[in-house]
Amino acid sequence: MKITKVNYTLSSAAATVKSRQAKRNEDIDNIHLPGGFVSGEAGLIGQHSSLENVSRPICKTTKVSGLMKREEILHNAKNHCFFVGLNDSGAELCKANAIYGIASIHCVQSQLGINPNATFITTPDMTITRNTGRWQSGFGYGGKISWGKGGTKLVILNTKPNACGILLGGLNELPDFETLVKKLHQIETHTIRIDGVEVVWDFYKSNHFIDIFEVKAVSKTNFNLPPYAFAIHGSANEFAGDNMSGFGLYYDKSNLLYDMADHIHTLFGEFHVVTGSAAEKYFEKYKYVEDFAKRKRKRAAELLFGDFLEISNEPHQGLVNMNEIVLGCHNSKNNATLFPLTLRADLPAYIVRGKPNLSQESIDLLGFEKRARRLGVYDRLLNANIIPHGGEYVLPNILTVNNVIEVNGKRYFDVEMQNDRGKKIISEVRELPYDYRGRTVLLRALEIGFLNIVAKLIPQCVLKI
Length: 465
Known about the structure:
Layout: E1 2-6, H1 12-16, H2 18-23, E2 32-33, E3 37-38, E4 61-63, H3 70-79, E5 81-82, H4 89-111, E6 119-127, H5 132-136, E7 141-146, E8 154-156, E9 164-171, H6 177-189, E10 193-194, E11 197-198, E12 210-217, E13 228-234, H7 255-260, E14 262-266, E15 269-275, H8 276-305, E16 309-321, E17 324-327, E18 329-331, E19 338-341, E20 349-354, H9 360-365, H10 369-375, H11 378-382, E21 386-388, E22 393-394, E23 398-407, E24 410-417, E25 423-426, E26 435-436, H12 440-448, E27 451-463
Parallel strand pairs: 1-23, 4-14, 5-6
Antiparallel strand pairs: 2-3, 6-7, 7-17, 8-15, 9-13, 9-16, 10-11, 12-13, 12-27, 14-15, 16-17, 18-21, 19-20, 20-27, 22-26, 23-24, 24-25
Helix pairs in contact: 3-4, 6-8
């Protein structure tokens, strides 16, 4: 895949240093990125744990001019991405888009005087994100994005955390499906509040659902799994915009958050961040929303099923700390936690347990070790501790990505079609026909050593109404 730049003028700063650029060795270990930093461990102030004392003032709107070519920044960003997905249309589009998001974070880090070493470590279900704002910012889905160790007071708002997750519960008896439909109708037509907030149910939305399974144990657990299980997939969209508790989580839906944020115009688009005490307040709000989302899923389960055994209720789209986010994958740092892995509706789902990952052996076999050590991010791979949460999207009409065309800051993807009858140029991916992957994601995760299977979940019924 190549990148074609159309109708773009380099910044004056880049033109000023053109002769110096020509004489410089373009070794990735010593690339001069915007702001005068050096890639790798020897960043300008890469060891800072807080942005409160950064000498450079942070303006509400800041334009980042480059000291290096855009192609070099993108090359450096690509080297900070560690892709372990399948070689299908979803994964290829993710690869093509994700380097732009990481490149933008590098520019933001540089502007704030931080070592520009943001990374994207994927899970085998890596694919597109159908959230338009996130996609336009240059992000994919199915992996962990890191821009620090957790202590730096900086949150990248373009990643758009929303605490989406799945509650997996156990049942002793298979429920009557007609009764469930009636109960679900009652839930959606009655006002229910949590902490005084009116709950907005979203079982019908996007890929949210309620599944009923028969449980077939594969390995031993600390407790006896019941014969049946259900999965409720949902988020806390009540807090996307401004709400009774104050600002929301989405910068493009919350005016209060937008006013709190710093807005940085990178070479690849505008990025929105919160720093210092604002970052702490945002993370505190996110943790509350995550807890709210868990209680919302539990409340729905109680209303639908009555008594149940809670097996898992974890987010797969949210902040781990102020410097890391999981997008479409589970944070499996606690190896005792069980997680659901859902595939297509016509295929079994699975209860899995994460293994410490990535292992040294896997890092070596994937060909990541030399590059990761050179960039100073080997520990992030060794302590990724992530697992896929589902099969995720594949685009059945698309074979691969040939080229990325940039026109005045907008990206277009030249894709090869499956029917071998021409090409297609796309920008947005939300409206593309899609399907969900099958067992290949699970097999890839087992091959790399992400997880162990605890139980197989045989589909009995899906509620999406």
